[in-house]
Design goal:
single chain, 687 residues, alpha+beta, Beta-Lactamase, 5 domains, 7-stranded antiparallel β-sheet, 6-stranded antiparallel β-sheet, 17 helices, GAF domain-containing protein
Length: 687
């Protein structure tokens, strides 16, 4: 046989000519026959012998044939006798069926007669040709499937880079609609979005939105395609199955956290197991891409938030250092309100503080248009700051009236202040309410930023203010200590100088040189009691302490209870006269008084007659006792007096190794025993 003829015959058989040959053979051997092929669950009529108008399809025919074959355990081709249980919707009495082509029986022949041996041999040969044709056809199907799969994989490969781009999940799902259209060529394709509250149509062909049941309500779903068949009622939902299966055959859920999408597809020409696997691959990859995209967005958002917080913390750190650098309260508060205004970008900022000097809450100042002005107007007089327990670190203007009313500080939330304020940041020192910084709305119209950071700044401001006030207190104590040291040194020097003075003129000169510098005086006068009456104010005679009279301070000069005169001190600033200065003046007067008395009664000479000095002192003591109506005795004896002897004396004058004692009693009885002649005591004789 020539090769070309062999090729033509082989090509004829492989191209499906075996079916025609089979029909010709059957036409020669039988009166009626029917050639069919499996098509799904049914049998499709390919050709017929002896039938003018055969049916095109036998409904559920394949299932009935499979049952008969299972009964007879048929693996390869064979002839089956059809019993009464095998009912066909065909005219005629079909008694036998020949299954040809091996596995799956691609060709079946219905016969009305039992075939003889000759027909069986012909059917066996036909079975071999059908196998060859079916294998060749399977290779074509595989090649076609491989070509289709290759195209799908190429389309998926091209789409993968775009799928993993940092797109929002909604954009990525919409992009996937275009990818599926180009890859699978579906008849219909719709995209449904689930926002957590409702399902809505997003892209593709318009469709009826599914009901929230089955996979459309589940939270944990794998991206696996589900067929819209009766067997998936529980997974998809009965109502959804009824509404969707008329137009769609597959549902592909893609779930990535809170992002939920559902793709509804109706297959076109490309519907194989491989296509379904590629669809599942795309679903799984897209779900991962969406999750990665969402993680990327969350990461970027967190990085941005951390950057903002880092910037805010750095700003607060620098602001805190700036506040801590200020040592004076006025500069600190001015800087504090300026920082709050800058960090909040507010149109205005005010600061209210408790002032220990003013004894109350004071509107210290405000910042407007970048300029800070000092006001210092008292709002509420109080002995001490209000004690608070549970107060928010900051609150809006809508809470201000209620908060300050609860603290009994309504004056701190007056309409004048509330017009400026939008938010209040409290300054608290432990449980003491020290005041607040109130800022108006931001010039940008947005929020202030991190309220927690501003609350931290308010706490830092309180610490800086407390530090500044403690520093002022320490400085004040240090200055007071230095002043006390200077006064003590001055008094020591004054006492030393007074011991060396020998005349009233020298005493007056010494006081003129030293007191004006220490006490801020314009004039110092020493006025004895013996001058014309009326020079000394009447209050001086009755007072033991300095007497203020206009710009003059009269310091009584007394020894014991006797007034010798007064020291008149004319001050430069009457407002400077205070308790401490008067106390110092009295102390100076106590130093000056005995020296003034001595200088007034002792003339100054190159040599001093101690007898005259003693006589004068004794005479004054005696005169004092006589004015009081007491008898007196004047004794002279040893200079070392016992404590009891000193207590009994009105005045004691020690001259060298002797002592002159003025007693307010007569020298007899117990007094004579106390001042015994045996100890060397005797009446004093002047001169």
């Amino acid at each position: 046989m020539p090769l070309c003829e062999l090729y033509e015959q082989a090509n004829f058989v492989l191209g499906g000519g075996v079916l025609g040959l089979l029909t010709q053979v059957l036409a020669d051997k039988v009166d009626r026959a029917l050639v069919v092929q499996p098509q799904g669950e049914h049998l499709s009529v390919v050709d017929a012998v002896g039938l003018s108008c055969p049916v095109s399809r036998i409904e559920n025919g394949l299932s009935m044939v499979s049952k008969q074959a299972a009964i007879h355990k048929v693996d390869d081709w064979c002839l089956l006798s059809l019993d009464d249980s095998f009912s066909l919707s065909l005219d005629g009495d079909w008694t036998h069926i020949a299954l040809l082509g091996g596995e799956g029986w691609p060709i079946m022949v219905f016969l009305e007669i039992s075939p003889d041996d000759d027909l069986k041999r012909l059917l066996g040969g036909a079975n071999g040709l059908v196998k060859i044709w079916n294998r060749y056809r399977s290779v074509e199907d595989v090649e076609r499937s491989m070509a289709s799969l290759s195209y799908l994989l190429y389309a998926v490969k091209s789409a993968l880079p775009s799928i993993f781009e940092p797109f929002p999940p909604e954009f990525l799902a919409t992009f996937l609609v275009d990818v599926m259209r180009e890859s699978f060529c579906p008849k219909r394709l719709s995209l449904i979005k689930d926002d957590g509250e409702s399902l809505s149509f997003l892209a593709g062909d318009r469709c009826e939105v599914p009901i929230r049941e089955g996979i459309f309500a589940d939270h944990h779903i794998s991206p696996v395609p589900l067929s819209l068949k009766e067997g998936y009622v529980s997974a998809i939902g009965e109502r959804n199955l009824e509404n969707l299966r008329a137009e769609y055959s597959v549902v592909l859920p893609i779930i990535a956290g809170q992002d939920r999408f559902f793709f509804l597809l109706e297959w076109g020409d490309m519907h194989t197991r491989e296509v379904l696997d590629v669809l599942e691959l795309i679903g799984g990859v897209t779900a991962k891409a969406m999750a990665m995209s969402r993680l990327r967005e969350e990461g970027a958002s967190q990085v941005m938030e951390l950057s903002k917080r880092e910037f805010a913390l750095r700003s607060i750190h620098e602001a805190t250092l700036s506040l801590m650098e200020n040592d004076t309260e006025e500069v600190l508060i001015s800087r504090m309100v300026d920082i709050f205004g800058e960090m909040t970008q507010s149109r205005a900022a005010i600061v209210v503080l408790y002032d220990h000097v003013a004894q109350g809450y004071v509107l210290w100042g405000e910042r407007r248009d970048g300029s800070v002005s000092c006001i210092k107007r008292i709002l509420k007089a109080m002995d001490r700051p209000v004690t608070v327990m549970d107060l928010p670190d900051s609150f809006g203007v809508d809470m201000a009236s209620a908060v300050f009313s609860a603290l009994d500080l309504e004056e701190l939330a007056s309409s004048e202040l509330l017009e400026v304020a939008e938010r209040f940041f409290l300054l608290k020192d432990g449980d003491s309410f020290m005041g607040y910084v109130a800022v108006s709305c931001s010039v940008t119209g947005g929020s202030y930023g991190d309220d927690q950071g501003l609350e931290t700044l308010a706490a830092s401001s309180t610490v800086a203010l407390k530090r500044c006030r403690l520093l002022d207190e320490v400085k004040g104590q240090r200055d007071e200590l230095n002043r006390q040291v200077r006064i003590r040194s001055f008094l020591q020097e004054l006492a030393s100088d007074l011991q060396q003075i020998k005349s009233l003129e020298s005493l007056k000169e010494a006081l003129d040189q030293s007191l004006p510098l220490v006490l801020g005086l314009k004039q110092v006068d020493l006025i004895p009691i013996s001058v014309d009456e009326g020079v000394l104010p009447s209050k001086v005679f009755k007072s033991d302490v300095p007497v203020v009279d206009g710009d003059s301070v009269w310091v009584p000069l007394r020894s014991g209870r006797q007034l010798h005169g007064a020291m008149r001190l004319v001050v430069e600033d009457p407002a400077s006269i205070g308790g401490e200065k008067l106390e110092l003046m009295a102390l100076i007067g106590a130093f000056v008084a005995p020296r003034f008395d001595t200088m007034r009664h002792c003339p100054v000479a190159d040599s001093i007659d101690l007898d005259i000095v003693v006589d004068n002192l004794v005479q004054r003591g005696v005169e004092e006792l006589e004015r009081e109506g007491f008898p007196c005795s004047v004794l002279i004896g040893p200079s070392d007096l016992t404590e009891e002897q000193s207590g009994a004396c009105l005045k004691v004058m020690k001259v060298l190794d002797r002592a002159v004692a003025v007693l307010p009693f007569t020298w007899d009885g117990d007094l004579k025993e106390l001042f015994s002649p045996s100890q060397g005591w005797a009446p004093f004789k002047p001169g």
